[in-house]
Amino acid sequence: MKTLLVIRHAKSSWEFGIADFDRPLNERGKKDAPAMAKRLLDKKIKIDAFVSSPATRAKQTAELFCAAYNRDQTEIIFNDTLYHAPAKDLFKAAENLDNNFSTVAIFSHNTGLTNFVNQLVDKVIIDNVPTCGIFAVTIAIDKWKDFDKVKRELLFFDYPKQV
C-alpha cells in the first residue's frame, strides 16, 4: 500500500518585479505550511519522502513541512518537471518514485495540480486546490510504476481555511 500527499505550495508573494519562479511565501504562507504539517502529524501520517518543484514558494513550503517533521531540508528531492506541471507530468512523477517510499508528499502548483487530483479518484471533483491544500490518496500497489493502473482511494482533502 502506498500513500500520496499532493500539496499545493503555500500562499506566496505577488510583490512587483519578482520572476514567477522566484516568488517567496508571504506571511500567511509561512503560517499555513507549518499548521498544515501539524495536521498531518496529528493524523499520525509518516512521510518517507518530500518531493518538490524547485520554485521558491514550493521549496519553502516543503522546507517548512520538513521542519515540522524534524527532518533535514537536504532530504527534499527537487524535480524540475513539477514547476507548473500539467497533470500528465504529475502522474509521471508519481510513477517514477522510489519503491522504498510508502508515503510521499509532492509539492507543486496550480492549475496542473488541481487537474491532477481531479483524475485521481472517481466521483471527487475539486474546483480549486487552495494554497497549502493537501489531497491525500491511498493506492493498493507495491511499485509506484503501477500508480496510474489501479484505482486510488481518497484518504482526505484538507486546506488551511477548512474548519
How would you describe this protein?
It is a single chain. Helices cover 27% and strands 20% of the residues. The protein has four helices and six strands; from the N terminus they run βαβαβαβαββ. The protein has helices at residues 27-42, 56-68, 87-95, 112-117; strands at 2-8, 49-52, 77-78, 103-108, 134-139, 152-158. The mean pLDDT is 96.
Brief descriptors of the model:
alpha/beta, 6 strands, 4 helices, globular, single chain
What would you say about this model in short?
27% of the residues lie in helices and 20% in strands. The chain is built from four helices and six strands, in the order E-H-E-H-E-H-E-H-E-E.
What is the 3D shape? globular
**Mean pLDDT score:** 96
**Rounded radius of gyration (Å):** 15 Å
Work out the helicity level.
25-40%
Task: State the separation between the terminal residues, measured CA to CA.
Answer: 29 Å
What structural class do helix, strand and pairing data support?
Answer: alpha/beta
**Strand arrangement, largest sheet?**
3-2-4-1-5-6
Compute the number of helices: 4
List unreliable stretches of 5+ residues.
Answer: none
Please give the largest β-sheet: 6 strands, mixed
Into which percentage range does the β-strand content fall?
15-25%
Beta-strand segment tally: 6
